[in-house]
Write a structure and sequence with these properties.
The longest helix has about 50 residues, at about 110-155. The chain contains 25 helices and nine strands. A five-stranded parallel sheet has the order 2-1-3-4-5, with helices on both faces. The chain has a four-stranded antiparallel sheet with strand order 7-8-6-9, with helices on both faces. It folds into four domains: about 1-130, Response regulator (Rossmann fold), CATH 3.40.50.2300; about 170-300, Reverse transcriptase/Diguanylate cyclase domain (Alpha-Beta Plaits, 2-Layer Sandwich), CATH 3.30.70.270; about 305-425, no CATH class; about 430-530, Homeodomain-like (Arc Repressor Mutant, subunit A). It is about 60% helix and about 10% strand.
């Protein structure tokens, strides 16, 4: 209810309004009274009413002096002046002090009711606007980790608009990003014989376990760093470096951390990593460090002497940017923008054509990388790449790629099939909402998550969200949440560093027997049997 406080030095006026106003009908209440401006000021400070009705001529402190003091204190409520004098000078002062209304005595209770009713409607409108702003603020705070994550990915891959570079930096991290140097380490999860035939679901388990190990090492050895998952088997780490630290010292420390990550991942997961390191850059050139890091990786994949000729000009400057190309192409595919896809492909092919030397080995390497990126990008929204190309023999197709023009034709053909497929078009229609839901699950799977809570965040109905989620991913939201929790649990069990009850809690289950039954139902074996495999 709206609280109304009345200030008047006439006791009969106070009693008359207190008894005659239909408080219940206005959804308001009599909150208090005072008989002079000084007492009124103290009451207002104490009660914090929504509406103040006050006379002007009163002892100790008059009404206008009191209102002036309230405005200096940023009193948020509405003020109505009720005076026995009609004076232009006072009316003008009241206007300057932004009062809601200026009424002259005598007036009827009906007139006062109308004024109160109008003032309350204005308060309701303000309150509604305030609530909407709060909801937007809360929603933005919920989105913030998602936005921050995408911002970092755009910065590290070079796909960000330079004019937006500083916009998503949290205030607490502003100096870190703008006053320090940055070095990127590229990470490649090598497809050895052991894992070459893994499903994308299992591949995700290993990616999750890799991220866990990497973050644990970084927390101890270099806390001022960011881990960013990129395309399928690639990831990157941004190391923030103090300006007084020498480049040589930074590179040595980073390489030691890279070696430790590689060793731990092999020890715990039996996975092989390649590590590449870029140079120290400022924020605006950070993506150059990324490209240098992945060029370093490429030199470990293809014969280094060939790579030098393939990718670097005589001036030793990066002339093509495959990481940026991968990211831009994946995003354009997700949003089914064929014209944009062709433009991205054409621009990249033009860069390749301008190289002094381009060998089929590099073009075929690009095809393999891009196919893995296509598969992973589509998997994230519930589409299986192989189902769109049931008769293809990839190795035979790739062997025929010898020129940039061959690559251009191959890419346009594949991307056209992907985005023109009916299932993909339907799945991408609500990409933004689905993206948020998927990302929210991956970041909050240890918490209680319901469609109801997500529907409030996205301003969409619960049933509608479930419908579009199932259409996009092929499964209900509840099943997806359980699957992700079980995948995360399995990855933690594979690491072998936690007890079962700890893992249950880490993936959102307080009841361990219930967690074990769900796990066995989902995986076919109990959690305790994972470590024995």
């Amino acid at each position: 209810m709206w609280k109304v406080l009345i200030i008047d030095d006439d006791f009969q006026v106070l009693e008359g309004m207190k008894k005659s106003i239909d408080w219940a009908g206005l959804d308001a209440e009599w909150a208090g009274e005072a008989m002079d401006g000084q007492e009124g000021l103290e009451k207002i400070r104490e009660i914090q009413p929504d509406i103040v009705i006050t006379d002007i001529y009163m002892p100790v402190m008059n009404g206008l002096e009191m209102i002036e003091q309230l405005r200096e204190e940023n009193f948020p409520g509405e003020i109505i002046i009720l005076s026995g004098y009609s004076d232009f000078h006072y009316a003008r002062q009241a206007l300057r002090l932004q009062v809601s209304d200026y009424l002259s005595k005598p007036l009827t209770m009906e007139e006062l009711r109308i004024v109160l009713e109008r003032t309350i409607k204005e308060l309701e409108a303000k309150e509604l606007k305030k609530l909407e702003q709060e909801e937007v603020k809360i929603r933005l705070m919920k989105y913030e980790p998602f936005v921050q994550k995408e911002w970092m990915k755009a910065v590290v891959t070079g796909t960000i608009d330079q004019t937006l570079l500083n916009e998503n930096i949290p205030l607490s991290e502003y100096n870190t990003w703008t006053q320090k140097g940055h070095l990127v380490m590229g990470i490649e999860l090598v497809r050895t014989d052991r894992i070459s035939n893994l499903s994308l679901m299992d591949w995700n388990l290993f990616r999750f376990a890799l991220a866990n190990i990497t973050l644990e090492i970084l927390a101890k050895d270099w806390p001022e760093s960011e881990f960013i998952e990129l395309h399928s088997h690639h990831a990157a780490i941004i190391f923030h470096i103090e300006m007084l630290t020498s480049k040589e010292e930074a590179l040595n420390r980073v390489r030691l951390i890279g070696e430790r990550i590689t060793e731990c991942v092999f020890t715990y997961l039996h996975l092989v990593l390649r590590i590449g390191v870029g140079d120290v850059k400022d924020l605006r050139e950070l993506s150059d460090s990324t490209e240098e890091a992945f060029l370093d990786l490429l030199q470990q994949t293809i014969v280094p002497e060939q790579t030098e000729k393939l990718l670097v000009s005589a001036e030793k400057e990066i002339t093509i940017r495959p990481i940026k190309f991968y990211q831009e192409l994946a995003e354009a595919i997700v949003y089914s923008k064929e014209e944009t896809i062709h433009q991205i492909i054409d621009e990249y092919i033009l860069q390749l054509q301008q190289l002094p030397t381009i060998l089929p080995a590099y073009l075929q390497y690009l095809c393999t990388e891009l196919w893995a990126i296509f598969a992973y990008t589509l998997y994230n929204v519930g589409t299986v790449l192989e189902e769109l190309f049931p008769d293809r023999i990839l190795s035979q197709e790739i062997e025929k790629i010898h020129t940039p023009e061959d690559l251009q034709h191959w890419l346009k053909d594949k991307t056209h099939v992907i985005i023109s497929s009916r299932g993909w078009s339907e799945n991408s229609r609500h990409k933004e909402a689905i993206d948020f839901m998927i990302d929210y699950v991956h970041n909050h799977y240890a918490e209680e998550i319901t469609l109801e809570s997500l529907s409030k965040l996205l301003y969409l109905s619960r049933n509608y969200l479930n419908q579009i989620f199932k259409k996009a991913t092929g499964e209900t939201f509840t099943n997806y949440l359980i699957r992700i929790r079980m995948e995360k649990a399995k990855a933690l069990l594979i690491e072998g560093k936690f007890m079962i009850y700890e893992i249950a809690e880490k993936v959102g289950y307080k009841n361990v027997p219930y967690f074990s039954s769900i796990f066995k139902k989902y995986n076919g074996i109990s959690p305790s049997e994972i470590g024995k495999k």
